Amino acid sequence: MTGAPDPRLPPLLDAVLDVGSALDLDTTLRRIAVGAAELTGARYAALSTAGPGREALEIRTGSAAPADSGNALDVPILVGAEPFGRLRLADRAGGGPFTAEDEQVLRVLAAQAGIAIGNARLYEEARQRERWIEGAAAVTTALLTGRSADDALLTVAERARLLAGASAGVILRPTPAGGMEIVTASTHDDPGGIVGTTIEPGSPVLEQLLGGEPVFVEDSATDPRMTTRVRHRFGPSMMLPLQAGGQLIGTLALPRRRGDRPYTALERHLATQFASQAALALVLAGARHGRERLAVYEDRDRIARDLHDLVVQRLFATGMMVQAARRRAVVGEVRETLGRAVDELESTIQEVRTAIFALQQPPAEAPTTFRGRVLRETAGAGALLGFRPATRFLGPVDHLIPDRTAGHLLTALRRALASATRRRDASRLTVTVDATATLRDGRPCVRLTVTTDGDTTATWQAPL
């Protein structure tokens, strides 16, 4: 004759089903502890994990952790053959000891918990992979939509920080001196104290970084390889090469705060893949930006050629005709009018030539010629004045004016422009650099003249 069924069998089955229904790992662990306490009547249950990087989970049901009185159950939880943690029960309701049946129930639950934890781990890893893949795709899309170089690096640093759960996302670039420097940082706080930090040549970690090798650090503050002045702020860290097609763009560093959990092998793998894809996107974005700049240069060259071949030649021909008419004119008033027309045409030709020169300069780079530097100064003043100053160059200024004299002239020009921008009623500003002028003693000189609303407000000259 068979005995009566164990009344705890239905609750055990319910607990097994409940534990196995959760895919989130933390929820699964909590259900294991609660279910074990309910099945055995324990007022205290604690589940501690053996794996690195996860804090112990403790569930209390009505009492604090009791002293070790011997009235307790403790069983291991295995995920496959790997120890995951231990489940401990104590303080049985009614004060009696735990029975052999209690232990058997607990071991059944622990075995099922191992399966559920394995499934939850797989789900968590799949979600992690999905997030990193989505993040890499978002970065690629953002970089290929026309971000500037600085914005592109910040986009990579910020998205990587969020994906990794890091305290900071940092981009380092090689320096001319052979070290590396933090050029971009995304942090919860002000990144100003991080940007500009350098890894000097000779640092133990530098050879690996410049060689395109990833570096993984358990504690940045105590690792002897870390030599930067901000290392004491951080704990676990990943330093990943941004490298594509043999080109090392820089290094992506993802440090966590001191005391935070270390990175898992999966997180290291996913972050390394992200860095590789981000580097490729940066290279593609740079190439795309280069093509766009080339197209702009080609358009500007075409416009400059059209201006030179059509507008300047026609203005010059018109000026010649007006000069001829001026010589044939008899009435003094007519000759004077034609003279003013010739002067205006010459001034217009000079301004068009200046515009042609400006079109031929790289727009986003510092000018290297004297003309370019003068145009940069006048353009800056124009932003403050609200209108574009007229700039005229007489003679081959780039060839005739030596560097030392050019520097003094630019200083004088800045003073004159600063004075002009303080005038609220200014409506027209003309800057003339004349390399064909002469001093009173007949020596050649360069003369700077700044005219505001027809009045000469500044004159400077120096011998050549």
UniProtKB/TrEMBL annotation:
InterPro entries: GAF, GAF-like_dom_sf, Sensor_HK_TwoCompSys, Sig_transdc_His_kin_sub3_dim/P. The keyword Metal-binding does not apply. Keywords: Kinase, Transferase, Two-component regulatory system. PANTHER family: NITRATE/NITRITE SENSOR PROTEIN NARX-RELATED (PTHR24421), OXYGEN SENSOR HISTIDINE KINASE RESPONSE REGULATOR DOST (PTHR24421:SF56). This is GAF domain-containing protein. It comes from Streptomyces pyxinicus. It comes from the Bacteria. Residues 24-127, 148-292 form the GAF domain. It holds the Pfam family GAF.
